[in-house]
Every structure is written in structure tokens, then in C-alpha cells.
Amino acid sequence: MALDILIRNVQIADGTGSPLYSADIAITGDSITEIAPLAPNATAEQVIDGTGLVAAPGFIDIHTHADIALMARPEHHPKMMQGVTTEVFTNCGLGFAPVNEEGLAIQKDYILGLFGDDGNANHPPHPKVDWKWRSVADFLERYEKNGIGTNLAYLMPHGSVRVSAMGMAERPATPDELETMRSMIAQGMDEGAWGLSTGIWYAPMRSADRAELVTVCKEAGFFATHQRDYAEAIWEATRESLAIAKEAGVPVQIAHLQMNGASNAGRAGELLELLEGAIAEGIDVTCDTYPYTAGSTFIQALLPSWAVDGGPDSILRRLSEPETRAKLVSDIAGFPTDWSRYAVVGVSSDANSPYEGLTFPEIAQKRGMSIAEWMCAVLEEDNLKACFVSHGAHENNVREIMQWSRQMIGSDGLHLPGKTHPRLYGTFPRVLGHYVRNEGVISLAEGVRKMTSAPAERLGLKRRGVLRKGNFADIVLFNPNTVIDRATFDDPLLFPDGIPWVFVNGKAVKANGNPTGDLAGRVLRKTK
Q: How much is the pTM?
């Protein structure tokens, strides 16, 4: 058999967590045709010397917000360059399909700041994003038509179905509204979604009652959840997630599991005991985390319910009314929050761009305002698209949760204009370079497993996540001695070092450290 690609003399981290071993890898078409020491006279159209490198399955990012970025910029450099070959989105319930016309208009105005492109007044519309889809099938077909550099697996967002059924109303759903949501989810599952994501920290999903959450999660058969709280109330929030999973009878993935606030320092072990207890009761729970102690999202997520009710137009109207704005300033000023831990990112307005990366107090002082006054100003000036990075987690908790066998790696990266959180560019090489090689928190084989077979098994992706004969040739080659993230909070848009080759479905999308431009990704649909 004629080989297309032959990788010689490489160390194999097969994704299962087993010890590394030496072999050659043969690729024909989109698949691995052999992993073994091959004869010296074996030839291929392309031969790559893997001496000193590790071959791993392409990384599967279980928690992403690639929705519009992957459509608008299909080579997907921030992820492809760090070895990601499959993106799993939507997460946190923040997405765009399935949806009706009213719901899509709300989502575009309310959450598009998380995606940093197309529809933003500061960015001209991209021709590859036409915003004409309504169903999951329509949405996924856009990626196939345009081509994509990585594979994708789609989770339906609770937010889009909720606003399609009942707008931005901050209240529980009626039976008719709930039936509309259930029907939309059922259709989306038939069209290839892998489950549902919820974000019950965010408006208006935070107004969902137990009956709504159990119904939508049961219909999807699997849910990933941004919990109601990750700080002082994390214990109550986690018990809620577990109760929903138990009542719905479905697996749950707890998204970006971190423990914020001073009272949670050093308490990861207690939280993991809670999860292990749930597993003993028959609840199927896993989690994902990113290797940082800071999070990031959009600023309007910090607003009280009364200010958000009715959606983006209502928020902006309230900001324009002096008395209502004064009430909002008063409410924000009363929040028991250390704003010095919050830095603004993802801004585009002339009023705020010069201060990107500075903390809220620093910007407020420079602009001669209180912090609450500036927060209202930036929401208005950046048309609800401004985001923030907040430093509130604890390094010892990050390490302990990473060591849990049912944890996997997810970037939660946001594709923002200007600065963003460095996790978008650095998550996977940071695990391999910092936490595996430099700190020894987990082994190399275990780190690779958490990036590959663990998420593949969690979703049920076939022929991916493990280097094995007959599997699809999603492969990353990295140097275990030099792989490292370069993105920082001050300079977050830097590609990593030590990852010379990335293959998606047998095609090199990164060769000798450089992108090839090949759009070799596929839409991965769940089938019954």
C-alpha cells in the first residue's frame, strides 16, 4: 500500500494514559494505517523525522466558544497552532442555534462581544458569516460550505432556545414555552448535536427553575454546565448540577471547575469528595478546567436581573435614562467585589481602547469616575461588548482538580478584538510545558489522555482521541523538552513553542511550525 505520510522514530503517547513507546506512524488518506516499527525501506510521499518528538492524538478542546470565530476565520490559528484538532462548542449556553428570528437578534446584540467579530460595529461583516441560519442543521452546514481548519462537535446552547421561546424574560418558563424549548432541542439532536450546554449564572438562563433545567437536559441526553456560582456558593451550585443530572438521568460535565474567593482556598479536596460521593450514587459527572487562576466573560453578565430584563435594547435604554442609570450605579457600588482583580479586555471604542488591560479602579481613576460609573459608561460606549479578566481562583486548587481522574482540559478561550485571556492561545502547551514538565503535577501520558481520549469518550466521538491503526489521523507532534505557552495576560496573542506539526484528517494544517492553510476539518455529527 502506498503511504501518504510516514512519521519515523517518534515517541507515541497514544492518548490512553499508557506509557510512551517508540514506533513509526503511517498515514494513508485520512486514516492511520500502521503504528509500529516499519521496514527501513518503507517509503511515502512525505517522510517526517520524529526523532526527539512525541506524537499524540490531536487535542480535543472540550470547552470552547469558537462559534463565530471558526466560521469567520476558518484556519483557526489560535487553536490549531497549539495542537487542537477538534473544537467542542457551544458552551455556557451562549450561542446561536437553534434559534428563531427574534432569538437570533437578541443573541447577536447580547453575547456577540464574546466572539469579537461580525455584527460588531467596529468590525465589518465577514462574508463567511451570513447570519441566515435558524436550525442546527443550517448552522452546521455553514462550516461545511466554507471549510474549517479543525473538526467541530456541537452542543446546543440553552440560551438560544430560551430566548427564542420567551425572549430575555427573567422568570421561569410557562408549560408552553418549555414545550417550545424541548421541541427545538429534540430537533437539534436529530440534526447532529452532541448534547446541550447551560449557563445558569447568565441572564436569562439564571431564571430557569428545576423543572425547566431537568426537561431540557433530559431531552438532550447530556449537558455541560456553567454553574450558578464558583465562589462562596459553589457547594450549593454543584449540588444543584448533580441533582439535575440525577433527576434527568443524564451525564453532566461541570464546566471550567474552579473555586473562587478567599474562603475556598485549599478546599479542592472537599469539592472532589462531593463529586466522588455523587459518582458512588450513580451520577455520571466529569469536569473540565483551564490551567490558569483567572476567568473571563462579558461585563454585562455582572448586572443585576432588573437591569437585564428585556434584553440588550432594554439595557441600553436604562443606561440612557439618568434616574435609572443612577440606580444601577448605586446597585453596582454596593456589590461586595474586589474590582482590583478585574481588568478590561475586548474593547473597541475610542473611549476605552487606550486602557485595555488595566484594572477597573485604574481606568475609573484615569477617567475621573467611580468604578460603578465607569462600568455603566463602558457598557454604553462599547455597545455591551466589553469583557473582563478576573483573578480569583487559587493555584493549589487548580493543581488538585487537574489531578482528578475525571478532569479534562478545556480552554474556554474567547475570540475578542484586542486583548483577551491568554488561555485562547496557550492552554494546551501550558499544561504540557508548565504543569507536566516543569511542575510534575501530572505525567505526560496522563496529560495527553486528559486532552484526547477523555473528551472523546465523554462525547462518544468515534475513531478519535487515541492513536490506533484505523483511527482518523488527527495527530500533533511536539517536543516534550521545549513545548510551552508564550501567551501572557500582558501579551495574550502569542503562539506557543515546541509544536512543529499538526495533522487533521491526514492533512498537515501546521508544518515545520507554520500554518499551511489547509482546511481539513470536518463537522462531526452525532448519529443515533
A: 0.96
